[in-house]
Specification:
Layout: E1 2-7, E2 13-22, E3 30-38, E4 43-52, E5 57-60, E6 64-65, E7 70-77, E8 88-98, E9 104-111, E10 117-118, E11 132-134, E12 146-147, E13 155-161, E14 170-179, E15 183-184, E16 190-192, E17 196-197, E18 203-204, E19 211-215, E20 219-223, E21 228-229, E22 233-240, E23 248-257, E24 268-271, E25 276-279, E26 286-289, E27 297-300, E28 304-313, E29 335-336, E30 350-354, E31 377-381, E32 388-396, E33 402-411, E34 420-425, E35 428-429, E36 434-435, E37 444-451, E38 457-464, E39 473-496, E40 505-509, E41 516-517, E42 531-533, E43 542-543, E44 551-557, E45 566-574, E46 588-589, E47 595-596, E48 605-608, E49 611-613, E50 618-619, H1 621-624, E51 627-635, E52 641-650, E53 659-664, E54 670-671, H2 673-676, E55 684-686, E56 695-696, E57 704-710, E58 719-728, E59 748-749, E60 758-761, E61 764-766, E62 771-772, H3 774-777, E63 780-788, E64 794-802, E65 816-817, E66 823-824, E67 833-835, E68 839-841, E69 846-847, E70 855-863, E71 869-878, E72 891-892, E73 898-899, E74 908-910, E75 914-916, E76 921-922, E77 930-937, ...
Parallel strand pairs: 9-14, 16-23, 24-39, 29-30, 40-45, 46-52, 53-58, 65-71, 72-78, 80-86, 88-94, 96-103
Antiparallel strand pairs: 1-7, 2-5, 2-6, 2-8, 3-4, 3-7, 10-12, 11-13, 13-14, 15-18, 17-21, 19-20, 19-22, 22-23, 25-27, 26-28, 28-39, 30-31, 31-39, 32-38, 33-37, 33-39, 34-35, 34-36, 34-38, 41-43, 42-44, 44-45, 47-50, 48-51, 49-50, 51-52, 54-56, 55-57, 57-58, 59-62, 60-63, 61-62, 63-64, 66-69, ...
């Protein structure tokens, strides 16, 4: 509808207004879309549905800011036109520049540590991106005005869009406040022993709110400077974060407290024989006990003081000691590589952190770091200035603590001109100068222990003392410095003997007995001073029968919580003063049951008339008879007593015997007392008769039961007798018809019109009841009479017929088995029919057991007729019990007992080898070798048995042969065996653990003395095994070792006697062979016949005939002769004070005598035969006296006229 572009000023505020009218009829059916765009086409303002209805209305867009030099106004009709539809008019469209509202913003405050932010985002009204920022400091980011709190200053920053000559400038401001954040100094990780006091937190711009926390951001538990920590923790030093400033600074560091506190526990006293395991606890790196042992624990078995020292190596205090964090956390007097023709380290006095030396200098060798083989190291080209620090680092330490320092160094090339490194702490050398190996890439460790003394912070440095330019190239890795935490504790252990409470005992006393000391009743030798439980009234061990109670009193000798308490007891029975008082006794009637008398105390004896049990006190009134009886209760013994009681026994009253009276109403009166007689007089009749006494008048009194009651005296019961009186009218004896009967019918009570009569006739078995028994009467017609006696009596007769019946009795039949065939049942009389389960022919009585299987059977035999009869036969069909024995394996005769099994339980096992016939235990050792017939039998009807042949194989046997049972090392022994068994597996074994597998002979070699057991393990083809063993079968005796010495060392024909001293071991017989002569003796003195060389042999033999021979050449020198002694004593006593040769028969020429000490130094020298050694020392360093020792002498001389120069060497012992 309308579209127009306008020129505007960027950053200025504008608004459009216009008037609209519905041109057709005023119906609101005009729908317009009004949009304002900037120069880029972005929408500045929009109304998507402007509805116009009625006459002129004004519309205003509201204010908006121009973000470009042009804007475009667009009006679109949203509805299609038509007749009278969507017609409108627009007039007075105005674009108006408004006065700009305030655009002054406040961005708030920022910490110097905050991230940079764009101030443009804080403008209240965005002005577009063509402006320029100005303010206290320069911003970056163009129109965004990026403000960096760490660089820019606080103040008001102004954003201006220059309007040029046409438009006014568009201006906005943002105020920013910068708060200097606290900046904490870096805190190094700390490793210390036992505890760490937190230092003051230092830095710049501190707020005064400094503290430590165990969570970041000043959260978690707070720790203040000066607080002492006792355990390892990660802490965060924190400052700031309180209103109005939220600026803070935080530094994290580790505190590693290697607690080496050792606590062996309190001094301990043990009971004799007890032990205690002292445990220094785990987690220490080293342990050292007072006896030099280095384990964590020590077992104590004796009294003494036990001391342990433990140590723990803390964590490394060197930051980046392995250089994995590159060129950080250390200082150096060297510079980083400057480059050159040989690489970065072409110049002396340079270093790099690298993974391979050859990467830094082409002449350096290629190798890996020490730590992992793939990490970094410090590679150094040595400086030509002595003492230049290669590496330094400041470290916090704990005063008075030992620290371990170590590092690894390697030459960078194969060159003898190696680095000479001096390690120092605060300028003081730590150990001597360390020279690297001339071999390149060969890592070596330097380590030293240093004590911090009073130091709290130190500087560790590594400097190179070699100033040579060639070579002198090296690598450093894994620099380590950590505290050594040491703790010492001691514990004294004492022993004491266990307590003795004595031996148990018992005590029986009466209440009247005097007090007794229970301690004296204890057996053995109990310790005094113990306690009694329960406590006695005396408070000691005195038992007073009058006060204390019976019971077990335990005496406890305390082990003082060290040894277990010892207990012994005295079981006290307190008989007490018994009370024989008899409990009250009632009166008795002579017919009463026996009564048990009671007294206060038990254990007494009862006596007197009527006592039938003197121990239980049973009184029988029927034995005592009527009257008063004295009964005595006596408790014997020291605590005994007695009591007496009188017991009354009354006779019973008798009211007579019960009776009955049938009387006719016309009969005369009768005295009822005569019917119950004999009876005691004095009783009364209830109900009362008309006569007032015992006279019954049938015309006046009634039919009822009349009781005669007599009251019993004392405890006796009343007695009652009764007369059942029936007053009858005249009786009707007419018999009711009955019958006919069969002989097997049950007895039948006949009846008549009136009861009370007497029945008679054949078959009557009860005359009063009129019981007729057809079986007794028999077959026929029988006359039965019924007579009612008395004045009211009458008489009648009746004929009763008993018809005959056939006896159906079935002949007996025993129980059948299921496997039995069909059979015919029978009865005494034929003609009946059979019925019931199993009957296959009801006429013949054929029965088949297999039809219904095992069960209880009832078979009925019935004979029809007027008097049908039947009989029932009860019998059982039983299951067949035919057991089957489970398969049985073959056994070896030494096999363990086994249980045989069958499919049916409850039977009995029998046969050789059966040891339990009920459960079928079979012992192969009790059976015979070969086949054993075993029978399993089930008892009872229809039962059977099964048989199995159990094979028991004999154990294999072998006879061992040994080539030698005794000998000397090395002894070769062959072993073999003979056997008739077929063997499948064998091995030989010795008690020393030697095993040779396989069947057949074997050979053993022995080179160590001692005896061994020989065993042969064999298994035959049946799987049976046998071990044949012989104890100490092969014994090795130590071989003899022939040895001897002789004296003197030099022998000549003037002194040809030689003493031979036997030094042999493990021998008992000796034989010498000298000059072809044999001598049987241990030691020997022999005089040689002439000057010559003689082989002298000693043959040594042990007690089993093993021999060893030693031969030595004995030289008998011819004259002239030289003799040299083997010891002297230069003590100035005039005897044997000098050492030298004795020369016979000539004057030596070119004579030399030399004496050497054990280190080969010549300590004395002479060229004169008459100048002998006096025991002094003459060295270039001075003279002195030789110590007592063994010295070597050398003698050189010539015999005049001979060319040969003679030389002898020997030993001489200087004794003082």
């Amino acid at each position: 509808v309308y579209d127009r572009t306008y020129d505007v000023c960027v950053g200025q505020t504008y608004q459009f207004s216009a008037w609209f009218s519905n041109t057709w009829g005023g119906v609101p059916d005009v729908d317009l879309n009004l949009t304002v765009y900037d120069g880029t086409g972005a929408i500045i303002y929009q109304v998507s549905s402007l509805v116009v209805g009625g006459p002129w209305i004004e519309f205003n867009t509201g204010q908006f800011v121009a973000t470009s030099n042009t804007i475009r106004f667009e009006l679109i009709n949203n509805i299609a036109g038509g007749v009278g539809n969507n017609d409108c008019s627009m007039d007075d469209l105005v674009l108006e520049r408004c006065s700009s509202p305030s655009n002054d913003a406040n961005a708030g405050s920022f910490c110097t540590t905050d991230a940079a932010t764009d101030l443009y985002a804080y403008l209240l009204i965005p002005l577009g991106n063509g402006g320029v920022w100005s303010g206290p400091s320069s911003l970056t980011g163009g129109h965004l005005g990026t403000f960096d709190p760490s660089v820019n200053l606080s103040g008001i920053y102004t954003y201006v869009i220059n309007g040029g000559s046409v438009c006014p400038d568009s201006i906005a401001t943002v105020e920013v406040v910068v708060i200097a954040s606290p900046q904490l100094d870096v805190i190094a990780d700390v490793s210390t022993c036992n505890g760490y006091q937190l230092p003051a937190i230092t830095g710049i711009n501190l707020t005064g709110n400094q503290a430590y926390y165990d969570n970041p951001g000043g959260t978690g538990t707070q720790y203040l400077p000066g607080q002492v920590l006792s355990s390892s923790i990660i802490l965060y030093a924190f400052d700031g974060g309180t209103s109005p400033s939220t600026c803070f600074s935080e530094v994290a560091f580790n505190v590693d407290i290697s607690s080496s506190a050792l606590e062996l526990g309190n001094d301990t006293t043990l009971c004799d024989g007890q032990t205690i395991l002292l445990d220094a606890g785990s987690g220490f790196d080293a342990y050292l006990w007072q006896d030099g042992s280095i384990g964590q624990t020590m077992m104590v078995t004796s009294a003494g003081t036990y001391t342990c020292e433990v140590s723990v190596l803390g964590s490394n205090q060197v930051q980046n000691g392995d250089f994995e964090l590159g060129d950080n956390f250390f200082s150096s007097g060297y510079t980083n590589g400057l480059g050159g023709s040989w690489g970065p380290l072409s110049s002396a006095g340079t270093y790099e952190v690298s993974t391979n030396p050859q990467l830094e200098h082409i002449n350096f060798m290629s190798c890996s770091d020490h730590t992992s083989g793939s990490g970094q190291m410090m590679v150094v080209n040595g400086s030509n200035l002595s003492g230049t620090n290669v590496w330094c680092q400041n470290i916090v330490v704990t005063p008075g603590t030992d620290y371990e320092f170590s590092t690894w160094i390697s030459n960078a090339i194969n060159d003898p001109n190696v680095a000479q490194l001096q390690f120092s702490i605060d300028g003081i050398p730590l150990g001597g100068i360390f020279s690297t190996s001339p071999t390149g890439c060969f890592w070596q460790e330097f380590s030293a222990i240093w004590n911090s003394g009073t130091s709290t912070a130190i500087t560790i440095c590594i400097s190179n003392q070699n100033t040579s330019g060639g070579g002198n190239d090296f690598m450093i890795d894994d620099i380590f410095f950590a505290p050594i935490c040491i703790s010492v504790d001691s514990i004294d252990v004492f022993y004491q003997p266990p307590p003795n409470a004595g031996l148990d005992n018992v005590l029986n006393v009466c209440p009247t007995d005097p007090p007794i000391d229970l301690f004296g009743l204890l057996g053995g030798t109990p310790d005094a001073g113990g306690n009694w439980l329960p406590a006695l009234a005396s408070g000691t061990g005195i038992f007073d029968p009058a006060i204390d109670l019976a019971g077990v009193y335990t005496y406890t000798a305390s082990g003082a919580s060290i040894c277990p308490d010892a207990n012994a007891s005295v079981d006290v029975s307190l008989n007490g003063l018994t009370s024989a008082t008899i409990d009250p006794v009632p009166g008795f009637c002579i017919t009463d049951s026996p009564y048990t008398l009671n007294a206060v105390s038990l254990g007494g004896v009862w006596s007197g008339s009527g006592i039938v049990d003197t121990l239980l006190g049973i009184f029988d009134p029927s034995v005592a008879f009527a009257g008063s009886h004295e009964v005595i209760y006596t408790i014997n013994g020291a605590c005994g007593s007695a009591d007496t009681v009188f017991i009354t026994v009354n006779d019973n009253v008798y009211a007579g015997s019960d009776s009955a009276l049938n009387i006719c109403i016309t009969d005369p009166a009768i005295d009822l007392t005569t019917l119950v007689a004999p009876a005691d007089p004095g009783g009364v009749w209830i109900p009362i008769l008309a006569s007032g006494g015992g006279i019954l008048d049938p015309l006046v009194d009634l039919s009822t039961v009349y009781q005669y009651i007599i009251s019993g005296p004392g405890a006796c019961l009343n007695d009652t007798a009764s007369v059942d009186v029936l007053i009858s009218p005249l009786a009707d004896a007419s018999i009711s018809f009955s019958g006919p009967f069969c002989p097997s019918d049950s007895p039948f009570n006949l009846s008549a019109a009136a009861p009370g009569g007497i029945w008679s006739g054949t078959g009557i078995v009860d005359a009063l009841m009129g019981t007729f028994d057809p079986a007794i009467a028999g077959v026929g017609i029988h006359t039965i009479s019924y007579t009612i006696s008395g004045s009211c009596g009458s008489f009648d007769t009746e004929l009763i017929i008993v018809n005959p019946e056939i006896d159906p009795t079935i002949n007996p039949q025993t129980d059948l088995c299921l496997s039995d065939g069909a059979l015919v049942l029978s009865a005494i009389n034929p003609g009946g029919l059979w019925s019931g389960n199993g009957i296959v022919n009801p006429v013949t009585g054929s029965f088949d057991p297999s039809l219904f299987g095992p069960n209880n059977y009832a078979v009925i035999y019935t004979i029809a007729g007027f008097c049908p009869t039947a009989d029932t036969l009860f019998f059982n069909v039983l299951p067949d019990l035919l057991p089957v024995i489970s398969p049985v394996i073959a056994y070896c005769e030494d096999d363990q007992m086994d249980s045989l099994m069958a499919d049916i339980g409850g039977g009995v096992w029998s046969g050789l080898g059966i040891t339990d016939s009920t459960i079928g235990s079979f012992d192969p050792g009790m059976a015979a070798v070969g086949g054993n017939e075993i029978i399993y039998t089930i008892s009872g009807a229809c039962a059977g048995s099964d048989t199995v042949l159990v094979i028991v194989n004999a154990l294999p046997i072998a006879a061992i042969t040994v080539s030698d049972t005794i000998g000397c090392p090395i002894l070769e022994v062959q072993v073999d065996y003979a056997t008739s068994s077929t063997l499948v597996d064998c091995f030989w074994s010795l008690s020393d653990g030697t095993i040779i597998n396989g069947c057949g002979p074997a050979e053993f070699s022995f080179d160590i003395a001692g005896c061994v057991d020989l065993s042969l393990f064999i298994t035959d083809i049946e799987g049976c095994s046998q071990t044949i063993s012989y104890s100490n079968q092969i014994c090795i005796v130590d071989s003899p070792i022939a040895n001897f010495e002789y004296a003197p060392d030099q022998i000549n024909e003037l002194m040809p006697s030689v003493e031979f001293n036997n030094l042999s071991v493990n021998a008992v017989n000796y034989q010498w062979e000298i000059e072809n002569v044999l001598y049987n003796s241990t030691d020997l003195t022999h005089v040689f016949s002439a000057a010559d060389n003689y082989w002298t042999c000693l043959i040594a033999e042990n007690d089993i005939g093993c021999i060893d021979t030693l031969c030595q050449n004995i030289e008998i020198e011819s004259m002239p002769a030289v003799y040299v002694p083997n010891s002297f004593t230069p003590d100035g006593d005039g005897t044997n004070d000098f050492f030298g040769p004795s020369i016979y028969g000539f004057e030596p020429v070119n004579f030399e005598l030399m004496i050497f000490n054990r280190w080969g130094e010549m300590i004395w020298y002479s060229q004169a035969p008459d100048r002998l050694w006096d025991g002094t020392v003459s060295l270039a360093s001075g003279t002195g006296v030789a110590m007592e020792d063994i010295y070597v002498w050398k003698l050189i001389y010539q015999i005049p006229g001979q060319i040969q120069v003679n030389s002898k060497v020997g030993h001489v012992s200087l004794l003082r």
